[in-house]
Amino acid sequence: MEGEGPDARARFRVARFIMEAGVKLGLGSVAVATACGAFHRCCGALRAPPHDPHLVAAAAIALAAKAEGTPLRARDLLNVTHRCLHPGVPPLGLDAQFWALRESLVQCELWVLRVLRFRLPLERAHKYLAQFALALGQWARGGRGGAPGVAWALLRDGAAGGLGLRSPPQHVAAAALHLAMELCGCGAPPGAPPRWWQVLSPGLGQAELEELERELLGLYGLDTEVGGDDPPCAPPATPAPSRSPEPRPGPSRAPQYRHRPFRAPPD
């Protein structure tokens, strides 16, 4: 992960929160990776985002689910993310707090889209990994285990650290597969050239391959370091509702809010 300061560790914690919420919401690995990538891109675009990091993460999950064809209900997303942050708090009711959070989520989704310049979904390494595994065939599934499955797990875990934001996705997929094959004891393909991975991903040099593999393995050390350091979250104060302090009559009536203009983020 680029940078080892407090900001990088804080982003890593929020990315782990995205992965936890994504699993509980039943999202696939590609959708979770897209959400993590969108979150890291937003944090990298602006030094001080105007929204709470966990709200940005929730908006990234919502947008990634829509981009992958599995949209989520706002109530499900808010309840799951709320319980991930505050395990001992009851689920949200359809009161003023819920509608205020829903309004904040919608506004943050629009902000994330503007930061990303509406370029969603992001190109992920998973489709390249599937193509590489298919090209290698039965040989890649030999050794002490299935290398494609291990590589897929490496890509899933690497999304929390923003893996692939600085390298082409095909390079990331080739590096994950190369590392997985080494871990599974597959070795190089019979009769293949010394740098056989360049057949799959031309332009991936030895130095970049080793750097990507070090970054992948380093994420597990970072996860161990910050694993038990997450401070407990206090229950949030009830935010002020947008229009009226009275609860909404029911879920069937969609709330109406006045449009507020957004300014595009600086280049």
What does this structure look like?
The protein is built from ten helices and no strands. With 267 residues, it is mainly α. The relative contact order is 0.14.
Mean pLDDT: 76
> Helical stretch count?
10
Spans where pLDDT lies below 50 across 5 or more residues: 231-265
User: What's the total number of strands?
Assistant: 0
Short précis:
The protein is an all-alpha fold.
Features:
single chain; 55% helix; mainly alpha; 0% strand; elongated; 267 residues; 10 helices
Give the helices and strands, then pairings.
Elements (H helix, E strand, L loop, with lengths): L5 H19 L4 H17 L7 H15 L6 H12 L10 H20 L10 H11 L10 H12 L10 H16 L12 H4 L5 H21 L41
